[in-house]
TrEMBL record:
Similarity remark: Belongs to the sugar phosphate cyclases superfamily. Dehydroquinate synthase family.
Name by which UniProt lists this protein: 3-dehydroquinate synthase
NCBIfam families: aroB (TIGR01357)
Cofactor note: Binds 1 divalent metal cation per subunit. Can use either Co(2+) or Zn(2+).
InterPro entries assigned to the protein according to its UniProt record, in alphabetical order: Dehydroquinate_synthase, DHQ_synth_AroB, DHQ_synth_fam, DHQS/DOIS_N, DHQS_C
Organism: Fimbriiglobus ruber
Transmembrane regions: none
């Protein structure tokens, strides 16, 4: 078992990673929540079997649990589902020591996490991510929340978990497209923070796609460490550092909105978004073309898109970017590479330059 420690003072916690020791979960849960006697396991319909393994593990260390199953998909990140979780917690009945255990992808993590953040002014939370995206991104960093009809993640809070248990064996049942989509965020960490990790991904692309257990544990552990490094320095998105995690995401937001949520998975939009933003950096003279080319090759090897669909209108994409929370007073703002492994926040990028990139 490997451990990644997230250092946040009194809110510090461990991310435990394994591919071979499923039984280690029970002891990990006990350590993370020494006093818990009761738990609510939150899961979705596609991962019930993983949730029941988790529930047995909890039982073996004296934590009795109920399971709340939500339908799979983004629509479950709703106030209505949240309310149902509050009902389930009230019925248990939950007290301050009751554990919420989120077993699933980012949807279950964000929803269950927000229930834990708010019920009884905060319950301990254990994350058991089952998608690659959740393992490398959403379960690290403490952001929780649900959607509002007016916007994604509009209702939310920061709530750090008591622990994160990652068993990469859970990925065996993950559909190929979801798996590849999660790889986009993994590539992102290489570009923004770690050139050696990027090289590792290039050299091991085949093993990664074959989901070799040791390789998966390595890339997930490294991704968690890199995200934790950022979160430790900017826990609540106040210093601006956390913004580097948005590399590729301004373009991605355009693709997701114009394509309609659901046309592309998030990671697919991020893959094409990174290439677009890297081309912007090229045109601004910040990087040589080779830096983009390497991303294009790696993302292509992972079966990810490297450009938006031709039918997505340039002006519509620009319009979304203009409204992006990172933009200010009509000028576009991007996180751009200065070399492989380093990015900077760049203000005042002209719309014409973005247009040019979108049209090539
Ligand atoms: N909190 C954060 O910091 C943060 C960061 C990034 C994304 N997110 C959120 O995460 C969500 C997306 O997460 P996601 O990509 O994990 O999507 P998801 O939770 O919808 O899971 C994707 C699909 O895979 C299925 N699934 C999950 N694990 C499986 C497994 N092991 N085997 C088979 N099927 C499995 C799910 O049922 C679902 O159908 C979005 O709502 C996004 O806003 C949050
Ligand atoms: Zn993302």
């Amino acid at each position: 078992m490997q451990t990644v420690r997230v250092n946040l003072g009194p809110r510090s916690y461990d991310i435990a990673l394994t591919s071979t020791d499923p039984a280690g979960f029970a002891a990990f849960a006990r350590r993370a929540a020494p006093k818990a006697k009761l738990a609510l396991v939150v899961t979705d319909a596609n991962v019930i079997s993983h949730a029941s393994t988790v529930a047995s593990g909890l039982q073996s260390v004296g934590i009795h649990s109920q399971t709340a199953v939500v339908p799979a998909g983004e629509a479950s990140k709703s106030v209505a589902r949240l309310e149902a979780l509050y009902d389930a917690l009230a019925e248990l009945p939950a007290d301050r020591g009751t554990l919420v255990v989120a077993v699933g992808g980012g949807v279950v993590g964000d929803l269950g996490g927000f229930a834990a953040a708010t019920y009884n002014r905060g319950l301990p939370l254990l994350m058991v991510p089952t998608t690659l995206l959740a393992m490398v991104d959403s379960s690290v960093g403490g952001k929780t929340g649900v959607n509002h009809p007016k916007g994604k993640n509009l209702i939310g809070s920061f709530h750090q978990p008591a622990g994160v248990w990652i068993d990469t064996a859970y990925l065996a049942s993950l559909p190929d497209r979801e798996f590849r989509s999660g790889l986009a965020e993994v590539v992102k960490y290489g570009v923004i923070q770690d050139p050696e990790f990027f090289e590792y991904l290039e050299a091991n692309a085949a093993a990664i796609l074959a989901r070799r257990p040791d390789t998966l544990v390595h890339i997930v552990a490294r991704s968690c460490r890199l995200k934790a490094d950022v979160v430790e320095q900017d826990e609540r998105e106040e210093t601006g550092l956390r913004a580097i995690l948005n590399y590729g995401h301004t373009f991605a937001h355009g693709y997701e909105t114009v394509g309609g949520y659901g046309a592309w998975l998030h990671g697919e939009a991020v893959a094409a978004g990174m290439v677009g933003e890297s081309r912007l950096a090229e045109r601004l003279g910040r990087i040589p073309v080779a830096v983009t080319d390497r991303q294009v090759r790696l993302l292509t090897a992972f079966g990810l898109p490297i450009a938006g669909k031709p039918e997505w209108a340039t002006e519509a994409l620009i319009d979304v970017m203009r409204r992006d929370k990172k933009s200010q007073a009509g000028k576009l703002r991007f996180v751009l590479p200065t070399r492989l492994g380093h990015v900077e926040l760049v203000d005042g990028v002209s719309e014409d330059l973005v247009r040019e990139v979108l049209r090539t």
